[in-house]
Predict the 3D structure of the following.
Amino acid sequence: MTDTHGNTAGRSDEELNELLIRRAIEPLAPVEHARLRQMLSDSPDADADMWDRAAAAVYLAAAPVPEEIPDSLRARLERAAPASIGGTSNRRDG
Amino acid sequence: MDSYGSLVWSLARRFTGSAADAEDAAQEIFLEIWKSASRYEAARGSEAVFITTIARRRLIDRMRAAGRRPQHVEYDEEQFRSWEPEQADAGEVAVEAAAARRALDQLKPDQREILLMGIVGSMTHSEIAAATGKPLGTVKTQMRRGLQKVRALIEEVDDD
């Protein structure tokens, strides 16, 4: 539905962008999460990841130097990784 | 895993309360990365941004599901000022991080602070408003404009 100024679509885009930006920064409340899912399903052409990508780039630019991955996690990941990328999951030896 | 293990692990540490939680989260993230690898499109950004996007989304979703708030992490203005692209641990990371860095440098100081409080400091919009004394609407607007600026510069890099 459109108001007397024809602004419904613009407000809807604004709400979608606001929810996407907030999702890129903080956990949404369940009702907001449901609203966002509905809006994305109504707008299949929307670029749902664009704000997440921008936030990821900021993180990469400003976060401290990464910590070394612990050996225990490395071992877990090697066990869980598909054989196609060097892990042992699904690998059939012998 | 060798290229991005440290990146994912560091993110997981920042978003979780214990090393055990962080390991569980990091494993979930890698499972999703391996499952989603075929969706990666180089034209839409570097591998580093793709992986960081998946990791942050998964970590924020975990908090939403658990009803937890992010842990606040102090960002160090001194460290921010002395950052060099070479600190990134892969060539592609350096290129996109440098573009984002240029975008951050072009923002007004208070706008940059809001972005960094949210993205690096893991603060919500409301918490940023309370901490800075700015109205919530202003925080949202500044966050949006800051991210728009970053997007524009990143897209220029990706188009080159």
Chain B touches chain A through 64 residues (CB under 8 Å). Helices of chain B lie at 5-15, 19-36, 47-66, 77-81, 91-106, 109-119, 125-132, 136-159. The CA atoms of residues 111 and 142 of chain B lie 6 Å apart. DSSP finds eight helices and no strands in chain B.
